[in-house]
Amino acid sequence: MDYDYDVIIIGAGIGGLTAASLLAKDGLKVLVLERLDRVGGCCSNYDVNGFKPEVGAVFVIAHEFYYKLFELLDLRLEDYLDWSLIDPVYQIYLEDGRDVALPRDFDAMAQVVKEIAPGDLDGYYRYCKDLGKIHKALLGFMKHPMPEIRKVTKLTSLAKLFASKEAIPGFIPSQKVALSNLEKLVSKYFKDPTLQLIFGWENMYAGLPAHRCLGMFSMITYMGHVGYYYPKGGMISIPKAIARIAQDFGAELRLEAEVDSIIVKDGEAKGVKLADGEVLTARAVISNTHSRFTYFNLLRDAGLPGWVNRTVRRQPCSIPAPMFYVGLSERLDSVKAHMSLVAQKREKVDNVWTDFYDRGLMYRAADGMYLVIDPSHGDPDLAPPGKQVLYTIYIGPYNLKYDNWDDIADDWAWECIDYLDKRCYPGLKQRVEWMDSVPPTELERRLNVAEGAFFGIEMSLPNLGPFRLNYRSLLIDRLYQAGQSTNPGVGVPGAMISGIAVASLLLNDWPKKLA
Amino acid sequence: MGTLSKPPLRSTLPLITCLCLGACLGAAWAMHLDDEQRRRIKKNLFELRELPFRIFI
After folding, report:
1. Are A78 and A63 in contact (CB under 8 A)?
2. In 10 A of CB A29, how many CB atoms?
3. pLDDT digits 0-9 by tens, A460-483
4. pLDDT tens digits, A318-371
């Protein structure tokens, strides 16, 4: 049988593009299909009259992984991406009216801790020491050159890559972190509730209450002090750069090409059928979409047993983050950092999470916690001259008990704007020139992410490792899966790792099964 | 032809006692859980049941 392509990749998100660039570099004929008119999926931005807010991902964390990807591609990252350090990491607006800048520097941060709760300074140093050891152990791989792509998924290569002297002192603290949830872990280091909030709110990025969130998520806070970065041109610069590399290696990228279904015959993926009826065949198919979209939509005619859909449906999604974007007619000086957290008291935040998680209740604007991002803070080109664009993330359930998101989204956004205006950004409301509210239902329609949960499948213990989507499908031959629904999960580096792993597995399968 | 001998009551009695005691202790513990804890346990049991299926997806 003649195939149109060696590999067809559905979805030009980070995972799909990473796999495309690596496979194209190895000489395979690759086609990437994207439903939208832009690349990136959840790591993207869009343009409304010059306002360019982010769609999902807001900063670069663990930038070392990006360097390793470029090493695999035999390219220099600096030739493709220009990013700058985010400092202060966050501006936190506390319940009592104070606002505190959290500096990147560890010693300057110690000063902030001392001002808030002098008794917790020892805890802060213990925190830095323990998490610093884990960070060093994780970074052991930076010392070693990357193995060739086929060997990346071999256990021996991985062991060699991560084996370093620093891994030994990192072992005990990493067990402490791995075996604890975020709530317990943070309270081991800090007694003051304000500090517990400052060092323990990153469960928001997992879309999980702190008691169900892995202690490992405290590394996000720590890594903010190692360095978060923001690329010039916004987060979309990352997928754009990888897409350009993939195309330079010969991959084909088709935008606005919606896939209707994956063609499955005799238990093997044979290609895809596009929404316009065109059929494209390939030796292998990579689905870089949410697991629910893959199984409920793309594989709806594959004749899979009933338990498959049931299992996929029952795998919980993280709590969604209703968002709204505002374009301001002039800059607000009270927005002092790239990222700001408008916080509530620790107990209140915990209650909010529990109610969202278990009961489907939506709190009023004055009770919630907000992450406000100002992409134009570091890169003024992301808003028209003299203007500003803000992107606000809130936490709320997908299924509201008493309301419908589509009916209340705009009113809810204006209520939040009004609250933020009174609480910390005076003049915000009157400067709003353009507003777009994106509740979970709308995000689901825009990005095909189930339940509008852009943090993907829940990052709790029963949904990680072997219990997350497999890179190589065990149900359908020649079907591979990448993206946030697979391991390791949430975040741009997570999707990138999944793309590398899938490319490696596929290249290993090539001589035996696919050629 | 041999016949099946009845298990002596004396050897099964400790086992039955332990089971009953365990059930009583479990019930007493469950009675003291608040709504929040009950919800968490229910969710964890649900997740446990799903784990074997997730491996194959």
Report:
1. no
2. 17
3. 888 888 999 999 999 999 999 999
4. 888 889 999 999 999 888 888 998 888 767 766 666 666 666 666 677 777 889
CA A375 – CA A339 distance, rounded (Å): 9
Residue pair A10/A201 in contact (Cβ under 8 Å)? The answer is no
Nearest in space to A403 (alpha carbons), one of A362, A439, A449: A362
What is this structure's pTM?
0.88
Is-contact A216 A179, C-beta < 8 A?
Answer: no
Give the largest Cα separation in chain B, rounded.
Answer: 60
| Strand ranges across the sheet with A432-438 | A99-102, A90-93, A339-342, A370-373, A388-393, A323-328, A432-438
DSSP assignment letter at A376: G
From chain B, which residues contact A within 8 Å (Cβ)? Answer: 36, 39-40, 44, 46-48, 50-51, 53-57
Helix orientation angle between B35-54 and A346-359, rounded to the nearest 10 degrees: 60
CA distance B30 to A186: 28
Chain A: closest CA distance from residue B47 (Å): 7
Residue B8: phi and psi, rounded to 5, are -65, 135
Asked if A466 has any chain B CB less than 8 Å from its own CB, the reply is yes
- Those of residues 237-296 in A touching chain B at CB distance below 8 A are 291, 295
CB contact under 8 A, B53 and A354: no
- For residue A287, which of A10, A5, A6, A7 has the smallest C-alpha distance? A10
Kindly give the interhelix angle for B35-54 and A306-314, rounded to the nearest 10 degrees: 140
Distance from CA of B29 to the nearest CA of A (A): 21
Give the long-range contacts of residues A243-246, CB within 8 A, separation 24 or more.
A243/A12, A243/A17, A243/A20, A243/A32, A243/A39, A244/A80, A245/A21, A245/A73, A245/A75, A245/A80, A246/A17, A246/A20, A246/A21, A246/A24, A246/A30, A246/A32
- Secondary structure class of A45 (helix, strand, coil): strand
A314 touches chain B (CB under 8 A): yes
> Measured between alpha carbons, how far is residue A457 from residues A385, A464, A486, B20, B34 in Å?
39, 9, 9, 40, 28
Q: If you search the block for the tokens 């697979």, which residue do you land on? A: A486
Counted residue by residue, chain B has a size of 57
Name the DSSP letter for residue A54: B
ipTM of the complex: 0.79
User: What is the token pair recorded at A438?
Assistant: 């994106």
A313 contact B CB<8A = no
